[in-house]
Amino acid sequence: MTTFNTGNPLGSNSPKDLYDNAENLDAGINGPGHTWRDRRGQDRTSWAGIEFGYLKFLADGSTIEFPTWAAASAAAGAGQVPQNRQVAVIGDTGSHTDPVSGLTVPNSGRYVMVAAGLEWRSADVLTQKADRNPTRFGIASATRDADDALTQIAVTESMVTQVLHNAAFDPVGNRAVYSAAEAANGLPVNAYRFWMSNVPLLGDITLEVYSRVQAGSTSAYPPTANDTLLSSVTVNGADLAAGNAYQYVEFRLPHAVTTTGSDLLVWKLSAAGGLSIGTRNDAPGITQFRRGWFGNAGGGSQNVGSPNRIAFEAFYREVDSALAPQINALESQASIIDRSFTREFSAAAARETNDQAYPQSAGHYAWTFGAQAGAGQDIGAGASIDTLALMVELASTVASLRLRVWSRPTNPATVGIYPASDGTATLLYSGIKTLAELGLEAVSGTWQDLRFPFPAIQTVDGQTYLFELWGYTAAAANIGIGITRAADGGFNQQQRGWYRGSSAIGVGSALAWRLGGDVFRIANDDPGDSSMHLLDAYDLEIDAAGLSVFVYGSGYGDGRKVSINAALSVAAAATGTENKEDYSLIYDTDTVFPSIAGAWLGRRHISGVSAARSDTGTALTLGTDFAYHVNGKLRGLIDVAAFAVDVTYSYKRERYDLVQIDPQTQAVTIKAGPERDFDAVEYQPAPDEGRVVIGYLHVVGAMVTAINASKFQGGVVRRGGEADWQQLLMHNRACLRRLLGKAARGEAVKVASYGDSIVAVQLGDPPYTANGAARDRPENYLINMPADTVAALPKYDFGDGAGQVHVKISAVWPLIAALELASGQPVEYLNFGRGGTTSGSTQHNGLWPARLQPVLESGADVLLLHFGMNELGQATTLANIKSIASQAKAVGIEVLIMSVPRRNVVDGPALSGWNYTNRALWRAAVETGAAFAPQHWIVMDEQLGGMGASRDSLGAAALFNHPGPAEFARYGQVLVESVLG
After folding, report:
1. Which of 452, 562, 931, 955 is 20 to 30 A off residue 475, Cα-Cα?
2. Cα angle 112-435-448, degrees, rounded to a multiple of 5
3. Would you list the DSSP string of 480-517?
4. Which of 390, 398, 607 is nearest to 483 (CA)?
């Protein structure tokens, strides 16, 4: 049977919900031998009688599956496949010829054609069905399941190297490294695939890719003296594979890499040990670098012997989808142009042509010049440049151009030294692009505008930036390039330039050039209309790979769009090893950090833990005698009385760095924060004067997690999500009329909170009545916070006899301050919170009459209701919250229900219960006419830019489920926005 995968119904049976008529349904697909299945599971032989509301065949992103390549090709040739539809052929294992490109598609067991107008091409559709294994891959330290993230996206793959496995190296406990190489011949590579087993057991797996000059010995895995690291990516094995069986795992590089000529593209795969990998055992007579190497971590490499070679695939993946995901290679970003914009080159500095030129016929194949930065120099300090613009003439056999960029201190002693020969010059960029990628043609006698993009540079006073352009044929031979000239204005040698490598351009002439970037301006019929993007906005991606960070995308403002493309480096946070003597090892079956009875070691992110009895020195066995929690506790696994042990462990410190941008120059920089043991989120640095925060980097040892905040601009409302906030505000304003009216009239208001420890912030056991000495206290709530952090919090005397001991850190306090500012009157705040409680009706909980009655009698104008953290996923929450809200409204108190913050990811990675409870709280608000504060919106995986922190830092006040002061401040912003807009 030929099956059309019809997707989900659109919600109505009317054909109007799809199309006004059936002209888009090609009548040619009716007829004998064809059976179609509608959404109700009924087989059809004709479109007649089908209720279109249950058919999504023509909806965006739909797929069509055929049993064989021949069937798909026949359907396509007969016009039976509508335009812009994905056609998948599964289960057919032969080689076939693409009907348009003429290319032969190799055996893969699954083929796809993507219909886009009249263009057909081979592709892979990552639309997964329930009976297929999901495709997983790693991007930097992040992973995505195709079912969740890439559904209905067409992906084209250009294979550079493919060695199919027919055997395998079985896992060996200490085998930690595999490596092999091929010549890339100028083709880009941004992904690798390996056939591996036991992947989830390996922990972090690192793929490094190097370029290697074939000189001297090449029979060892990198790094050797001939190797240059191009890219690296680290992914946890549990994120790459769901099971331990042999399967393909895929690594995505943060940006594309390549080599040219005889240089090798060398990959190195490493883990803690026990690596297994597919091999091919019928490959005699090939060089060792193609055969590969293996070895132990830190040890010498061993050659893979004939006839074996390591199996792997190196390829370039390109995404094509109506969803337009921004996961293109880094160097491609500068060429993406929105159709609503026109592109202009904006020069930060230029040396204009004097109408003279060096023609390509002279055979000069390389040109180099330097631009000195600083006041009165070639280019000003603080300028952002990401593109070299030259007027060039190309010989007819030019196939590609290479650009290299250096920097070195401006020094009269080096002005005559060619940069490649100068030890003081730092290579910033080296890249090769084909003429097609650069938008040029190899036509001699024609002068063309070359724009070669490179990672953005912010120029520094006292530095010289040197640019070298080199021409190659398809066979990687040198070939002539013509270039325009400029008048010699008394320049030194580096300002005049060089040709053919290090040959000096003589006095009297210089090279013409421009440095700057492409600017995109709105292309309206009315050139004076710049109504779009009048405010600054950013649409950026921030990727981390090792200690490298890549920022790319677009910025908008004043009716223009600029390309942003920066590669930056991050310093690792400190690591170390410590010993703790006489640690009390207590038998405990608890595994969640705050429940473990043992003392905290005072460090987080620990590993490599060993322990021995303090009295006898007898070593204990990890996993048999004791276990440890990564956040810094040990527990005994044998049910005996507690005893003292000496503990040795490694630890990593952490830091939060800001990724900031200068809105004037679009220069991207990183500002580092102070290192801490685990509360670095409390010490995020402020941006430099005139800079805007676009992201955060959570640095733990040498691991970097990027948090993209470019669409939040310091707030909690994500650009593009304003409509959801407006809908929420309309609902909330209707539910809080009296509160907002009193504030607007300048009348005093009374606010009450009722819930768990997240509003109580308590010490000890508070009474059912409001406030008192036990609430808004840091001692127990911030029990694991370092003493200096707690001591730095402002303390207040609430007049309850306890003295100046209270803190105003909960999310409620920003709302109190905002209401006082709006009304001009003091706000009376009644805190009825009590830690460890739920919304239930048993003693101490929310519906317990003795506890609820003081709340109902408080005379508050509004009740902030916060339950849920202690009952995630429970079916009773909806009814309980509705009952509390209804009782409060019945006595004249308006109600605002707060959603539940997110727990720390170490002990609370599962989100199903959290999502269930937050949906129940929203439903309770809607069904009772209560307002709603969606605190959880800014800590969902794709919304962490609103919180400005990684999942590892959430709920960390108790290293589990208590927000700390910095989190509370952001949640307080959500609360204020939800009430006052």
Report:
1. 452
2. 140
3. -EEEEEEE--S--HHHH-EETTTEEPPTTEEE-EEEEE
4. 390
Contact 202, 328 (CB under 8 A): no
Lookup: tokens for 147: 């079912």
Summarised one tens digit per residue, pLDDT across range 726-763 is 889 989 999 999 999 999 999 999 999 999 999 999 99
Strands 366-372 and 498-499, by their bridges, are: antiparallel
Question: Smallest Cα–Cα separation from 912: which of 945, 874, 856?
Answer: 874
Kindly state the percentage of the chain with pLDDT values over 70. Answer: 79
d(CA 679, CA 790): 11
pLDDT tens digit sequence for 646-657: 999 999 999 999
Distance CA(106)–CA(97), nearest Å, equals 9
pLDDT at 443 over 70: yes
- Dihedral angle, C-alpha 385, 391, 397, 400, nearest 10 °: 0
Rounded Cα–Cα distance for residues 443 and 439 (Å): 13
The gap from C-alpha 316 to its chain's centroid, in whole angstroms, comes to 20
* H/E run at residue 161: strand 154-162
User: Any idea where the domains of the chain sit in the sequence?
Assistant: 3-127, 142-320, 335-340+347-520, 537-572+654-708, 575-652, 735-980
Token pair 């999310």 in the structure block, residue: 811
Average pLDDT over residues 328-339: 30
Strands 142-145 and 110-114: unpaired
b/e map 848-864, b = 16+ CB within 10 Å: beebbebbbebebbbbb
Chain centre distance of CA 930: 36
Buried b (16+ CB within 10 A) or exposed e, 197-216: bbbeebeebebbbbbbbeee
Beta bridge partners of 449: 391
Question: Rounded to whole angstroms, how far apart are CA atoms 280 and 73?
Answer: 33
DSSP 166: S
What is the rounded CA–CA span in Å between residue 325 and residue 327?
Answer: 6
CA torsion through residues 61, 64, 70, 74, sign: negative
For residue 617, the number of C-alpha atoms closer than 13 Å in the C-beta half-sphere is: 0
pLDDT of the residue at 343: 60
**Cis before residue 223, ω within 30 degrees of 0?**
yes
Q: What angle do CA 287, 290, 294 make, to 5 degrees?
A: 110
Distance CA 555, CA 537 (A): 6
User: Which tens digits make up the pLDDT trace of 218-248?
Assistant: 568 888 888 888 888 888 888 888 788 888 8
Domain 735-980 class, CATH top level: alpha beta
HSE of 962, CA atoms in CB hemisphere, 13 A: 26
Which region, left, alpha or beta, applies to residue 742 given φ > 0 means left and ψ of -120 to 50 means alpha? alpha
Buried b (16+ CB within 10 A) or exposed e, 421-434: ebeebeeebebbbb
Alpha helix (H) residue ranges in 778-863: 778-781, 787-791, 812-823, 849-856
- Confirm whether 142-320 and 335-340+347-520 share one CATH topology: yes
Strands 862-866 vs 894-898: parallel, antiparallel or unpaired: parallel
**Fold classification of 142-320 (topology level):** Jelly Rolls (2.60.120)
Name the residue type at position 956: A
Structure tokens at 799: 């007049």
* Cα within 13 Å of Cα(66), Cβ side: 18
CA distances from 664 to 284, 481, 669, 685 (A): 60, 35, 13, 21
How does the average pLDDT of the chain come out, rounded? 81
**Under CATH, what is the fold of the domain 335-340+347-520?**
Jelly Rolls (2.60.120)
Structure tokens at 873: 């996923």
Residues 932, 939: Cα–Cα separation, whole Å: 16
Instruction: Tell me whether strands 247-257 and 136-139 are parallel, antiparallel or unpaired.
Output: parallel
Nearest to 636 by CA among 611, 653, 614: 611
- The torsion region of residue 416 among left (phi > 0), alpha (psi -120 to 50) and beta comes to alpha
Which secondary structure element, helix H or strand E, spans residue 886, and what is its range? helix 877-890
Q: What is the pTM of this model?
A: 0.57
